[in-house]
Amino acid sequence: MLQNARSLFFRPALIRSSAGARVSTTWWMDISQRLLNHLAIVQPFFGHQGVTIMISTKLSRSLLRSSVAAAAILGLSAEMADAECRAAGQPGDDPRATIVCDTNAPNPDGDGVVGDDENVRLLPGASIATNGETAIALSGGEVTAVGSETNRANISTSGDDAPVVVIAPDDGESAGTTLVFTDASSDGENSHIIEYQGPGATRFSFLAAESSFETSGAGSSIYSSSGLRPSDEESVVFANSDLVTRGNDAPAIVTSLVDIISLSLIETEILTAGERSGGLVIDLAGTNRADNFTFGASNIATNNNESTALELSGSGAGSTTSFILGTSQLNTAGSRSHGLVLGNFLGDGTVSNFGLNSMSVRTDGEGSNGVVLGEGLGSATPGVTSKAIPQNVADLLSDRATQLSVGSLSRWADLEIGSADVRVTGNDAHALVIERGAALTEDETRIGSTLSNGTILSGVVSDFDDFVATGEGGYSILNHGTIAGGFDMTGDLGMDGGLLEMSIFGDDDYDQIALTGSFDALNPFEMFLDFQNDFIPDAGDLFEIVVAGNQQTTFDPMEMISLRYGGVDVEDGFFSLDFSGGVLALSVNGSGGGTPDLAPIPLPAGLPMLLSALGLGALLKLRRGRPKA
Q: What count of other Cβ atoms lies within 10 Å of the Cβ of residue 130?
C-alpha cells in the first residue's frame, strides 16, 4: 500500500540544474519518504472494495526544511539569466515531456505555461505571473513547484477568470499537483488557485506543504474540483499551509464529487472573509462512494455571513464515509455561519464513522449553530453491514488518533464526540442541533441497542455539558432527532419534534435529564419509557424524568408528548404525565390497567458480536443512569 501511495503522491522526476545537466531528484524522494512516514494507509474495513483511509499524524515544520536543504547539495540553484520556462526532455520512464521553470524573475512576457499532457516543474525561486490568463494550464500531467524556506516558488495571476493552475486531463490520464514552499495568489473574480476539471483523470492527487495561498476576487477558491465520474479518485493533502480567500462566494476548498475522495488537513490555517464563503464545503453526491477525511491541529475561521467553517453533507446508497477531526478550532463571526455541519448520511447500506475530539467551536452570529448532526448520523438500519471494525484495525486507528491528539477512539461508534468545547453567542443560535433521523446518547453502554423506532443507536457523546449557548432564543441542544438515556447539562434543551428514550429499572433507578436551564416543547414530540429488570411500578410511584432548574416556559405534556412504553402492557390511564415547576414527572395511577404484564426485552442478536469486535464485552454489564440530585 505504501508503494501505491508513493506512486500516487510522489513521482520521481529529473530536473535540469543551473548548468543544464539532468539531475535525479533523489532529494525529493527523501521528502516523499518522510511524508509517508507520517501517513498510515490501512486496507478497507467498511465493506467497500478499493477504499483506503489515511490517518495523518502531526507534521513537523522542520520536516521539509531539512529535506529541501538537500537541493543545494545537488547544485539545484536557480538560473538568474534565463527568464523562460523550457522543455527538459523526458524524465526517466515518464513518457511525458517536462517543462522546467528555474528563473528568479517573473516571465517577461506575462505568458502562462500551456502544456499538452506535459509535466511542469518549478525550482526554488521560480516565478510565473500572468495578467488575464491562467498561469499553468495542462490537459494532463503534473505540476510540481518546490521552493525552499529562503527561496520560495511563486505563481500568481491578475484579472478575472484567470485561475492559477488548471488541470483538465484527457480521458484516462493521471494527473497531480505538488507544491512545497510555494506562494500562489490571484486577485480577479472566478480565479481559483487550483482548479481540477473532470471528467478525465481516473486518479488525481494534490499535495501542498509549507505553502501559502490567497485569493481576493469573488468566486475564487483555493481548491476547486468538479465533474468527476463514478470511477474517479481524488486525494488532497494540505500540510503546514495557509489558505486565505477575501471575496464573496469564495469557499477555501469546495468539491462536489461522485465517487472517492481522501482529504487531509494537517497543521493548516484557513481564513475566509467574504459572504457565502465557507472554509470547506464538500458535497458528497452519488452512490457507492468511499470518502475519507482527516483534520488535525488545523484552524478554520470565517468572518462573514452564511459562511460555515466546515460543511460535509450527502451520501448515497452503498457509500462509506470516515471522518476524524482532532485538536482543531472552528470559528465563525457572521450570521447563519455554522461551525460544523455533518449532514444527511442516509441510504441503503450506507456506513459512516465519525470521530470528533479535542474540538473547539465558536460562533458569534444570529442563527449560527455550533455543531449540526444531520439525518442518518448516530443511527443505523438493521440488516446493513455491521459498523464494527476488526480489533487490529481499531487499535491502529486508536494509535493514530492519539498521535493526532484526538484521543482514543476505542469504542469507534458510527458517531463519537469526545472532548469538545462548543460555545455560541448569537441570538437563535444553538450549540448542538440533532436533526431528524440522527441519534445520540451520553451512555456508551447503549451503543448497538435497538431504539423504539427500529433503528440501531450508534452515536455517543462524552458530555452534553460541552455545548453552551448564551444568545437569546438559543439552546444548548435543539433536538429534532433522538436522545437516549439521562444526562446532566448546563443550559437549555429544546424539543422540536424528535424522541426521548429513557429506561426505568426501579423506584429509584431510572434515567433522568437534569438541566440548569429550561426544558421547552417547541413542537409535539415522542417519549419512550422502557421498563426493565422485571420492574413492576406500583400505584403512587413517581418518576421525575426531566428536572429543569430555571424553567422559562410551560406546556401541557398530555398535548405535546406522545408517550409510549416498553416492557409493560398496560391500559390507557395507568400512567399520566405532569409538568410543573420545571419537573416532567411520570405518575403511576394504577387504574385501568391492573398489574402490568411485563414483557422482558431481549438483547439484540447482533449486540454480543458487536461488543466482542470492539473489545467491549464488559459492556454487557450495563451501567444505567440514575436520578441526578
A: 23
Cα distances (Å, whole numbers) of residue 493 to 192, 426, 516, 522:
42, 17, 10, 10
In one-letter notation, the amino acid at residue 498 is G
- Mean pLDDT, all residues of the chain: 75
Specify the pLDDT at position 448.
85
Give the pLDDT score at 628: 39
Q: Looking at the domain assignment, is residue 601 inside a domain?
A: yes
- Counting Cα atoms < 13 Å in the Cβ hemisphere of 584 gives 26
Which pLDDT score, from 0 to 100, does residue 405 have?
A: 41
Collapsing DSSP states into helix, strand and coil, what is residue 327? Answer: strand
Last residue within a domain, chosen from 168, 199, 223: 223
Determine, yes or no, domain membership for 198: yes
The residue among 411, 369, 325, 409 whose CA lies nearest residue 615 is 411
Q: What is the pLDDT of residue 258?
A: 53
Roughly how many angstroms between the first and final C-alpha of the chain, as a whole number? Answer: 54
Instruction: Report d(CA 373, CA 434) in Å as an integer.
Output: 5
Within a domain: residue 81?
yes
d(CA 415, CA 312) in angstroms, rounded, equals 14
Q: What is the CA radius of gyration of the chain?
A: 28
- Say if residues 372 and 403 touch (Cβ distance below 8 Å): no
In whole angstroms, what is the distance from residue 496 CA to residue 574 CA?
27
- Burial grade of 449 (CB within 10 A; 0-12, 13-18, 19 or more): buried
Structural domains in the chain (count)? 2
Instruction: Report if residue 302 sits inside a domain.
Output: no
Q: Which residue type is seen at 377?
A: L
CB 459 within 8 A of CB 413: yes
pLDDT at position 98, please?
Answer: 78
- Least Cα distance to 389 among 614, 169, 571 occurs for 614
pLDDT (tens digit per residue) in 299-354: 999 999 999 999 987 666 666 677 888 889 999 999 999 999 987 666 565 667 78
Establish how many alpha carbons lie within 13 A of residue 566's alpha carbon, considering only the half-sphere containing its beta carbon: 19
Q: What is the rounded distance in angstroms from the CA atom of residue 276 to the CA atom of residue 271?
A: 13
- Percentage of residues in the chain having pLDDT higher than 90: 45
Local confidence band at 288 (pLDDT 50, 70, 90 cut-offs)? low
CA–CA dist 254, 215 (Å, integer): 14
pLDDT at 42 over 90: no
| Cα gap 13→11, rounded to integer Å | 6
Residue 119 structural domain: 1-223
> For residue 35, what pLDDT band results from cuts at 50, 70 and 90?
very low
Which of 205, 223, 241 delimits the end of a domain?
Answer: 223
